[in-house]
Amino acid sequence: MANHDSIHDAPADDIALLRRYRAAFTQSREAILFFQHGRIFDCNPAALALFRIQDPTQLAKLDIVKLSPPTQPSGQRSDMESTAHIRLAFNTGQAFFDWQMRDLNGREFPAEVMLYRLDLPEGTVLQATVRDISEQEAQRQALLQRKQDLLEAQRIARLGNWVSDFERGEIRWCEQIYQMFGRPLGEPITHAIFMQAVHPDDRERVQAAFDAALRGAPYDITHRVVPPDGNVRTVHERGQIEFGPKGQARRMIGTVQDITEQKTLEHNLRRLVAILDSTSDFITMHGPDGGMLYMNSAGRRFHGLPAASVSDEWNPEQGWRRHALPQATRSIAETIRFFHPEWAAQRIEQKAMPTALRAGIWQGESALLNPDGDEVPVSQVIIVHYDEHGNVDQTSTMIRDISEQKHLEAELARNAITDHLTGAFNRKRFDEEIEKALARRRRNGVSTALILLDIDHFKPVNDTHGHDVGDQVLVELTQLIQNSLRVPDFLARWGGEEFVLLLPDTGMSEAHYLAERLRQLIASHRFGVVGTITASLGVTILQPTDCPHSCIKRLDEALYGAKHAGRNQVIGAPPIISTRDQVH
Ligand SMILES: Nc1nc2c(ncn2[C@@H]2O[C@H](COP(=O)(O)OP(=O)(O)OP(=O)(O)O)[C@@H](O)[C@H]2O)c(=O)[nH]1
After folding, report:
1. Which architecture does CATH list for 264-405?
2. Residues forming the active site
3. N or C: which end of the chain has fewer CB within 10 A?
């Protein structure tokens, strides 16, 4: 603009040419600037607009350095960098470079700059063509970001994509696949290299799937890969073939997903379920609403439900599935009533569940109903699992049939208080009973009687027939006595061939009468090969001042009296009354 007057001095053709150039210069959408010694002396309207130069007369004062920020994105100082480019343009005639520019309003933008050295009659000047590439740059950045996001998403999903271009005969893997297959990044890939990475045991299957895909079948296969580090991974591959117009396979596009962790989890879970299924405890799992999701084999056997395999009950996509479980197990309330007797159901609802929900676990005893409706005692553990928000996620129960244990416990308890040969109570139990009887006597004055019974001449029975026969006599005698007692009467083996009876609410004459009846019963009974035997009996009643020792002593004395008086008789103490003569 500063030099356009010179056009008038030129010949006509040149003038026409110059006008054309001038028009092109003026209308160019690219910013064109001329400068010399660092000062701009001409520029086109596009440059004025780009650099927001309002007043063209300012141009002459404008230092080229003013159109750049002090430093470039690279961190270099703009003045030093630009000097280098200008020097290059001077020396070689041109210099192309990307440059961060700044307009007079202070907006910075990236640009492509082309510097040309123009050797004109009036001296050497530089022409700068500046193209604002901020939009392209923004697009490039957005594209780069999208690519990075995609890579990141693929990395998170452990997903890689590949293309097999049959026409060009090349396979392209994304970075993820190189990593998954443990190949050096950028290595040219062939089908052979891919197959080499596939686990040897899976190669045949993968090749068959690939061949089928070439014939149009969907390529969808899970197989293992063995990277050079030897850490076997499991991948899921999916692919799709693109066919050309003549039906020829052009290329195949596919994805590879590393599902090693998922597979490991799946395997572990299957193993755990297998363990759950092999235990003899009954295990159930319930969803957040309490509906039953799973019952292990032991539970199914106990309740007479159809057996189930792990895959019937669980799969990786759907989790637990209610396989062949009764309708009535869809809610917690129904489930509890379905499996437990009423008292246990109430205990679980009112105590067990509230405790488990509060503390995460409850353990205690309850009972189950077997398919015949019989009650089976069980020990039960209820565990409540919570999710990360503190909501109930699942409830598990572990139930153990303790009928055997209960039976043993009862037997042990019985053994502790009974004589193992005769089944009568033992001395220890009698000691407790006499204490209670004495306390009762003192408290309410009700009479309690004691009878001590000793077989006469038992030694010869053993000596003649052997100890086993002697034992049998003791057992039979116990039965005989037991059968003639009332419910509250108490029989214990005092020791050897001696038995003691405690008879609540019984006075002296009544006790005497019973003792006499027993004596006659024994004397008239035939004890197998032994034939008949007799017994001597002592009788007494508890006195308010008695202690166990004093009453037993009295009883012992009465029995001694009966023995001394010739055996096979009843003696009461005190007073000493013999009844043999009365009965015979
Ligand atoms: N078979 C058997 N015999 C027992 C058992 N306990 C004690 N005896 C026997 O009972 C007999 C008791 O004998 P003694 O105390 O001499 O009295 P007895 O022969 O019954 O004579 P008197 O009591 O004086 O009439 C002994 O031979 C003991 O071995 C037992 O559990 N089984």
Report:
1. 2-Layer Sandwich (3.30)
2. 497
3. C
